[in-house]
Structures are given as C-alpha cells and as structure tokens.
Write a structure and sequence with these properties.
Length: 262
Amino acid sequence: MDDVKPDTGASTDRTPQTPRDPMVVIEGVNKHFGDLHVLRDINLTVGKGEVVVVLGPSGSGKSTLCRAINRLETIESGAISIDGKELPEEGKPLAELRADVGMVFQSFNLFAHKTIRENVTLGPVKVRKKSKADADKQADVLLKRVGVEAQAEKYPAQLSGGQQQRVAIARSLAMGPKVMLFDEPTSALDPEMVNEVLDVMVELAREGMTMIVVTHEMGFARKAADRVVFMADGQIVEVGTPQDFFTNPRSERAKDFLGKIL
Ligand code: ADP
Ligand code: MG
C-alpha cells in the first residue's frame, strides 16, 4: 500500500493509521439482510497484537461484523483476510479456517454433556489432530491460565457464568487462534463476575493476542484497547484511540452514544 502514513507519534490527525503488520484486513465489505443494509462498506485493518474495541448502539452491525470475520455470515462484496490469507481459502476446510479465528459469545456455548476438560480438548483432537494426551496436557495449562483448573472434571452447569465464560476463552485458545473475537462476552454475566472475565482478556491482550472486542465495558476499552471503532447503522463512523474517542468524540452519533452509556 502506498498511502500508509508513517507513525510519527506526533500526529493530531485521527484518521486511522494502517497498521504495518496486519493480521485482519477487512476491505469494502457489504451485507444486507433483506432490505436492511447491515454492513456498509466496512474497511478496517487490525494489526498483529492489536486490541480493537468495537462500540456502537444495539443493531449497528457489530455482531454481524464479528460473524462475517469468522465466516458464520457470508458477505456480498469486499474481502476479509486473516494473516494474509483471504477467506474462504481454497481447499481449507471451514472448521480449520474458523480455528484461526477464536470467538467468544455472550452466551457461553459450552457443550453441556462434556466435562470442562473435554470441552477444551474436543476441538484440538478433532480439528487440529492432536493426540488425546497432548490435548489433555494443553487443556490443563489453559484451564490454569484462566483460573478454573479445579473445575476440570465438572460439567458446565456446575460452574458459575464467569467460570463458564473463562472456560469458553480457554476452549478457543486451545485451537491456537491467530485472532480472538469477543462479542459482548460479559453482557450475560452477573455484575460480580464481569471483572474475572475481563481480567483474563486484559492478560491475553498483554501477552500480545490480536483481539477484536465488542463490549460496553468502557473500563476495559480504556485499559486494553489500542483503538476504538465506533459503529452506527452498519457503518464505521469513527476510529481513534480510547483517549481521543472518550474525551473528544467527533460525530453526533458518538456523542449521543457516549452520553447514554457514560
Ligand atoms: P449489534 O450486534 O450491533 O447489536 P447485529 O449485527 O446483531 O447488531 O444486527 C444488526 C441488524 O441486523 C439488526 O437490525 C438486526 O436485527 C439485524 N439482523 C441481525 N441478524 C439478522 C438475521 N439473521 N436476519 C435478519 N436480520 C438480522
Ligand atoms: Mg450484537
């Protein structure tokens, strides 16, 4: 690309810098649901190790964008690539493709009839063709990392919502994803459990995971986001640093949105 501006660090221009080492490149993406133009010419590049928080009112297309990145939704035009490879990739099974893009939803989506450890080992064994022994070892490491190692033999219903969501994160990580998508991961949790999940996400960000996070948790955005993307009516309306966006939103839509949630 010729138009990449050097990052001098001194710029007051808030046009989004194109990250030098892109992990996710979304170009000219459009999608309709019937008459509803749910994604309107979406362009966004997320750099390796970057954390992008996506904000916006309900119905603005945030979940659809996440699902499109993970190929749970088709797109009508444009292109999405992960680590230089456009999806869907020729000859690569969709399951494997999706394994590169971890996704954690609002609802925990664990397999109810599998133990916590089995929830984490299933994908690596089936999709990544790991041996059961290796997958078990990895699961124990990951469950420890998210602080639920003591629950490994239990079933999802025996865990709190916060614990289940941390298992969902461990399960995604077990696939060795290149990027993690989080779609309102704490919205369904009791308030006292929100932080235990956000803490795991902050830690993941610190370790250098590339993350796209849809959340209304402004504390997380301030602490962990490199950039904030504000969506409304299927469009990206603003992109900026958390500092810029929260203190000086430019658009009326963003001012209105922040006025309601802050
Ligand atoms: P957000 O996550 O920002 O709340 P969504 O991406 O879930 O927004 O939805 C954007 C719009 O698309 C909403 O108006 C929603 O009702 C609509 N929508 C989402 N999924 C579908 C679907 N499968 N069929 C039809 N309309 C949908
Ligand atoms: Mg949503």
